[in-house]
Amino acid sequence: MKSLFKVSLLAATVMLAVGCQKEEEPKVEPAAQEQVQAETGKAVHFKTEDDKAAYAIGVSFANYLSTSIEKPAEFGIELKKELVLKGIEQAFAGNAELSEDEIRAALEGLDKRVAETMQKQAEEKAAAAMKRVMISALSLRNKKA
């Protein structure tokens, strides 16, 4: 459920940033005309501080999403980056293929599977540790006898 909250919070932040932009002609500051080399090899030009902030939101969002995709993979849950990107693209276009209820159910299901897998791994580690402790205790007991 925390993931759903984080995604919702991030979405609200993006919407707030987009919604707060004014329709007036942007002021071009010389310092704001920076270039950033994107992974595609194309330079990104920032004409305004708003452009730079928008890009920063995108990078921050992508970093968060990468973590959100990689973390479940540690537990054997494979999330396809292509589908994540498709979901973003369709959501921004206003034609997501899942309803809000389906989205919530899918995210809650993912959270549940990750939590269950983490719990199972923790139990397995605890059992292995207990086994080592028992073997050590028996070994000490046998040495005393």
Automatic annotation (TrEMBL):
User: Which Pfam families does the UniProt record give?
Assistant: FKBP_N
Answer yes or no on keyword Signal. Answer: no
Q: Which GO terms describe its molecular function?
A: peptidyl-prolyl cis-trans isomerase activity
> Which EC number applies?
5.2.1.8
Give GO terms for biological process.
Answer: protein folding
Q: Looking at the record's lineage, which domain of life comes first?
A: Bacteria
Q: Which residues form a coiled coil?
A: none
Native source organism of the sequence: Vibrio maritimus
Q: Which InterPro entries would you find in this protein's record? A: PPIase_FKBP_N, PPIase_FKBP_N_sf
**Keyword annotations:** Isomerase
Please report the stretch or stretches of sequence annotated as the Peptidyl-prolyl cis-trans isomerase FKBP-type N-terminal domain: 51-129
Q: What class of enzyme is it?
A: isomerase
What is the name attached to this protein's record? Answer: FKBP-type peptidyl-prolyl cis-trans isomerase FkpA
